[in-house]
Amino acid sequence: MTIVEAIKAVLSSHPDGMDYLEIYTAIIEEKLYSFGATDPQNVVRGQLRKHCDGLNFPSSSKNKYFRIIRRVNNTNYYALIDNSPIKVLPAEPYDTSDLLPEEKMQQAYLEHAALIKNQLISLIQSCSPTFFEHLVVDMLLEMGYGYDKNSGIVVGGPHDGGIDGIIYEDKLGLDLIYIQAKRYNKSVNVGRRDLQAFVGAMEKIQKGVFITTSSFTREAQKYINSQQQKSIKLIDGDMLADIMLKYGLGVKKIGEFSIFKLDSDYFD
Predict the structure, then answer these.
(1) Which single residue of 32, 45, 131, 167 could bond 20 by disulfide (Cβ 3.0 to 4.6 Å)?
(2) Among residues 66, 33, 63, which one has the least CA distance to residue 48?
(3) How far, CA to CA in Å, does 148 sit from each of 145, 174, 177, 246, 259?
(4) Quick one: angle between helices 40-50 and 3-11, nearest 10?
């Protein structure tokens, strides 16, 4: 019997839920599993979280057998998914003491990424519109659009005709992507009128990308979704920052960490 099987055996007779210490004690008392670890209670806790529905982190398992049915004094109570009663979890302040190390690392990374993304958007908004036009062209080239790294141009200016950049997907210029860039504050959303003007400026061009540092109104999104003749992608400020992080545009990687899990096949 594995540790997970032992936990499932204990919880099968406790549909009201148990915390990890109670589960560990029951496993020992019923002699379901012999632990060799120096901290067996933590082993039980780790297996519960790795196989718990709703908890997803790098080393968690795709197989979910347990779920948290209530939380009391920062303690989680687990039950089997298939026989646990439905209960509403009481609202409590978020506590990180019950997180596994890799979960804490993931949470810290998400907080770090959110901070960098906010800083990126703030910095872009403090730059000139011309810089933003060059940035969005560089970004699409970095993502792999265009036939080489020099196949994008900035055409923005007083008489740009509503087009800020062009990506040439082939050397003859038979396939083009038009770009519109709006460096708006977060409180100013891109509306339907802006997108209608962009579609009009595209004329016979079929592909377009509209990028903003803010966001799009619901009407603007519906308008683009209703387009039958053209393929237009909307990129808001949050997606813009995500892409810049992913492709290392405007940021530098200063460190990297690996997360490990045991290779059970090796020991078998």
Answers:
(1) 45
(2) 66
(3) 8, 15, 14, 20, 35
(4) 80
Residue-wise pLDDT for 128-148, tens only, equals 999 999 999 999 999 999 999
* Per-residue pLDDT tens digits for 62-90: 889 999 988 888 889 999 987 645 444 44
Q: How many CB atoms lie within 10 A of CB 32?
A: 17
Q: How far apart are the first and last CA of the chain?
A: 15
Residue 99 in contact with residue 74, Cβ under 8 Å?
Answer: no
Percent of the chain that is helix, strand, coil (3-state, to 5): 40, 15, 45
Torsion, Cα 231 148 243 240, to 10 degrees, reads: -60
* Six-digit token string for 248: 């290392």
Instruction: For residue 250, give both structure tokens.
Output: 């405007």
Reference 60, options 68, 69, 49, 71; nearest CA is 49
* CA–CA dist 165, 152 (Å, integer): 7
